[in-house]
Amino acid sequence: MKKCGFLKHIKEIFTKNKLLKLFYLVLIVFLCYAPSFCQHAEITTPAQDTYYLNELAQGIETQEELIHFYKKYQEMEIAYSTRYNGATAIKFRAMTSDVFDLAGARREVFSQMEANEQLAEQTLTATLNDLDAAWQIEIASKEEALKHYNSILDDIVATHMSMRAKIIEAGKYYDEVAAAGYPQSMLDTHAAIVAESEALGQKLAEHHDRARHYGIAYDLKFGESFPKSLLLERYLDAFDGKCTRINEGDDYGDVEYVAELLGLISTQEELQRIETEVVEVISAAYDADGQHGRAIKFRGDLNEHWVAAEDYLYEVERLEYAIADFEYTISDKDAIWESISADRAAVEAPTESVDTAE
User: Fold this and answer.
1) Separation CA 317–CA 328 (nearest Å)
2) Alpha helices, DSSP H only, in 40-85?
3) Least-confidence region, from 4-18, 257-271, 325-339
4) Secondary element (H or E) of residue 320
5) Considering the entire predicted model, what is its pTM?
6) 3-state class (DSSP) for residue 317
7) Element spanning 147, H or E
8) Cα–Cα distance between 135 and 218 in angstroms, integer?
């Protein structure tokens, strides 16, 4: 009986009490739509809102400001889609498309500026560290400096060629690992070989730091630099004709190795030596191993570095011609000036007085 009375009371609420039903209806509608009402952006007209978004985009510098702009734009876009007809929403999107692109472009510019500032700061720090290290080096004479610098270069080349040998060993051994079905014991051995090559790479970087610091110290003391040919000659003499079978983009390989050699050239003769003594030899090694595709890729990946080296030599040659032409012009002008000065001196020289008999 009590249960039936309760159900009857509930039934009366939803069937007889009209005011209560209306209240419940309004409450349900409010609970369902109130959050969306609060989230709607304030909009006016497409033209006015485009002007507002443009002003907002003009001040964007940080990623947070860009996110705020995108959020505001999205809120307005939703508001136009829900409150107005489709034509008005399309008009808003059309009028703000350039503003939307402007916001992203401005952030990209400031992002690049931040990257450049960070790079400049890192470069400055590295330069100051190099100078500080160089000031700690004592050099007694040019002869002693050249001897010590050559010993550092010997360490560089020996370590570099050992690293290349390990890279070659790792590449060939990995083929054996693949052929054997990748057993864990062989994978561990391969990882150990790779670790040795990476350790040699770290040691090589340390030798390069030593050479750079010593070169700076030499320049500070004597006002001149060691020729790059000293290191290039050692590399060409030490090259064993082998290829790493690793191309640029995968790891340190033949392309990177030759690119470093190209960074040491000063003459066309040195460029030609790299071509005949290194590039052609590596290409032939690929071909002899039946890897014609790798030989072609090696040449293709190297092309960009090769063109840059040729452009560098062209600029060096052009600068040398300009200096020679300038020196010739100066010497020619000096000769003319000396001739004019001599003629003027002859004209302005006082003549000897001659005593005449009375």
Assistant:
1) 16
2) 46-58, 63-83
3) 4-18
4) helix 292-348
5) 0.63
6) helix
7) helix 142-179
8) 10
